[in-house]
Design goal:
The complex is a heterodimer of chains A (about 110) and B (about 120). Chain A is mainly beta and about 110 residues long. Chain A is about 0% helix and about 50% strand. The chains are: A mainly beta (about 110), B mainly beta (about 120).
């Protein structure tokens, strides 16, 4: 059971480049989320999804797009990277009926935009 | 709206000292869940404990203990006889009800350094 898998683990982008951070889970979790972690600010919610075909914005959605075509995958797209998007990104998932167990997190993607 | 505050940005202790990490939360929901996560230098998030809003019993797990007080909206975490391996960033988080988008709101984190 792999849990939540994020790829890549590290990435360096130039300003203006685009890329997709991949997130996949094999636990049949309905809920998936993307967070970014910045020093002194904890983790902040970017986008989330409550099921295939359903996504919504979180606290800091600007500059990011998501889609959820399958239950397993929830990619995060940066269309035109900016230095302000330098951060560590975490994907998380949980089963809708198991609120008490919180989220399972991936190991993170460290992104640097130069 | 939800908010979690961890007022201690950094704490430094000497091994074997006890240390308490503070967490204060705000929510209008009557049903919610509180969590503590550990982030070691390797970067992953490690789940430590969850508490629901209806269970105010304190919990002890080995050297770790948690004190949940609804009256003061606090969920503090104590490490007894700290060890160097406890050095990490610790996050307190709040998860609200389903109908509110199921958002996990994190505090800013407390960097704990345990010196030998």
């Amino acid at each position: 059971n792999a849990g939540v898998t994020q790829t890549p683990k590290f990435q360096v982008l130039k300003t203006g480049q685009s890329m997709t951070l991949q997130c996949a889970q094999d636990m049949n979790h309905e809920y998936m989320s993307w967070y970014r972690q910045d020093p002194g600010m904890g983790l902040r919610l970017i986008h989330y999804s409550v099921g295939a075909g359903i996504t919504d914005q979180g606290e800091v959605p600007n500059g990011y797009n998501v889609s959820r075509s399958t239950t397993e995958d929830f990619p995060l797209r940066l269309l035109s990277a900016a230095p302000s998007q330098t951060s560590v990104y975490f994907c998380a998932s949980r089963r809708r009926a198991q609120l008490t167990y919180g989220y399972t997190f991936g190991s993170g993607t460290r992104l640097t935009v130069v | 709206a939800q908010k979690v505050t961890q007022a201690q940005t950094e704490i430094s202790v000497v091994e074997k000292e006890d240390v308490t990490l503070d967490c204060v939360y705000e929510t209008r929901d009557t049903t919610y869940y509180l969590f503590w996560y550990k982030q070691p230098p390797s970067g992953e998030l490690v789940f430590l404990i969850r508490r629901n809003s209806f269970d105010e019993q304190n919990e002890i797990s080995g050297r770790y203990s948690w004190n949940f007080q609804k009256s003061t909206s606090s969920f503090n975490f104590t490490i007894t006889a700290s060890q160097v391996v406890d050095s990490a960033v610790y996050f307190c988080a709040l998860l609200n009800r389903e109908t509110s988008g199921s958002r996990l709101t994190f505090g800013e984190g407390t960097q704990l350094t345990v010196n030998p």
